[in-house]
Amino acid sequence: MKRSTKLDRQKTYSAAKSLYADMGVNTEAVMRKLSKISISLHCWQGDDVGGFENTGAALGDGLAVTGNYPGRARTPQELRADLDLALSLIPGRHRLNLHAFYGEFGNKRVDRNEIKPRHYKNWIDWAKDKKMGMDFNPTCFSHPKASDGFTLSHPKKAIRDFWIEHCQASREVGAAMGRALGTPCVTNVWIPDGYKDTPVDRLSPRQRLEDSLDQIFAKRLSPKHHLDAVECKLFGIGSESYVVGSHEFYMGYAVKKQKVLCLDAGHFHPTEGIADKLSSVMLHVPEVLLHVSRGVRWDSDHVVTLDDQLQAITAELVRCKLLDRTHIGLDFFDASINRIAAWVIGTRNTLKGLMMAMLEPPALRKAEREGDLTTRLALMEELKSMPWGAVWEAYCETQNVPAGDAWLHQVRSYEKSVLAKR
Ligand code: RNT
Ligand code: ZN
């Protein structure tokens, strides 16, 4: 793509700025508002959800990554270096979302129920250095004790107890991260439990899951440092007929226990979006965690593009003023393209969606309030061709990150000098 010069960009921006000003929108204020939003980057895009336990366990339990693009991060050092590059190409200050099996265990075999904050010290130091917050996840998959597809709802008590201990240990790790970094860590529980084919007893696994969650959350942790989230799913690979932790299950649980409800954009019926759920669930749960993702047919985890679903989600967050109660995380994994580019594309798109929503003029809401539905539709469509891209580019420049597709050149040169040698 031909790159515009800095002077071109300044001119386009000042034209855009006055167009928005005419509509009562202050682009400078929008940029300030956007700069306060942190997106939690998921570590697992960098290594195809592999983790660092070195047990040779293959990814499974409902998760699948396809592609074999060269340069996957194989060590924590490599993953941090890749994240450093991605973060330098994304405007704003963000967070890191780490999975438990990305701990640094030396050459020891530390089983999941034995994890301690010290195994995450390097990650915490790295985040502290960058003034970033962290979020955390117990890893209830890729493990011999999850090989039959059941964890917290397993019929055998010994197996359930193992996963309960892992989730309890994960909360302690999360709380340590929150304390060290001065911003609450959201620890999100997702489990793969479910059946490929039609079950006879749908109730007992759900009763067991509820009991396990109660045990996991029994110890109170200060919300200043730590928040609990639970994530539902409609179906997965190998759990097509029944998922224990369904939407109704976790929605009910989160409402009853006032937990953070995680909504993953790819975890519903293929044509069902999560945008319309936000204004409803927010009436009943204290906070929401988003896994911004993109479902494509049966896969829930494609790289986030600036599509209608994403714009609908970001519009809801802004229009309903939900940003203060929403933790925005990403969740996708694509091994068929450059993995750092995947992070950059997905995160920049999420920010672009938020910016577009913040640039909405007050006339839109006014039209609806006054019952002028013709103006509402006409304006909504006109807004699609407003020069929001010029504001985005100006924002990137003020945040000292490349505007336009200039970031891709940096990824390419890193690919040559670093990734190709792995
Ligand atoms: C799986 C869930 C979950 C995972 C991560 C790796 O369907 O979306 O969030 O993607 O825990
Ligand atoms: Zn998810």
Structural summary, described in words:
The protein has 422 residues and is of the alpha/beta class. It has one domain: TIM Barrel, CATH 3.20.20. Helix 3 links the parallel strand 1 and strand 2. Helix 1 crosses helix 13. The longest helix is centred in the middle third of the chain and has 25 residues. The structure holds L-rhamnitol and zinc ion. The site of L-rhamnitol has 13 residues, from loops.
What is the strand and helix layout of this fold?
Blueprint: H1 6-22, H2 27-35, E1 39-42, H3 76-88, E2 95-99, H4 121-129, E3 133-137, H5 157-181, E4 185-189, E5 194-195, H6 203-216, E6 226-231, E7 242-243, H7 247-257, E8 260-264, H8 275-281, E9 288-292, E10 294-296, E11 299-302, H9 308-319, E12 326-330, H10 339-358, H11 362-369, H12 373-383, H13 388-398, H14 406-417
L-rhamnitol (RNT) is lined by residues 44, 49, 63, 99, 137, 190, 231, 233, 236, 264, 291, 300, 331.
Q: Outline of this structure?
A:
By secondary structure, this protein is an alpha/beta fold.
Structural class: alpha/beta
CATH superfamily: Divalent-metal-dependent TIM barrel enzymes
Poorly predicted residue ranges: none
N- to C-terminal separation? Answer: 29 Å
Q: Which molecules are bound besides the chains? A: L-rhamnitol, zinc ion
In the CATH hierarchy, the third-tier topology is known as TIM Barrel
In CATH, the architecture is Alpha-Beta Barrel
Strand order of the largest sheet: 3-2-1-12-9-8-6-4
Number of domains: 1
Tally of strands: 12
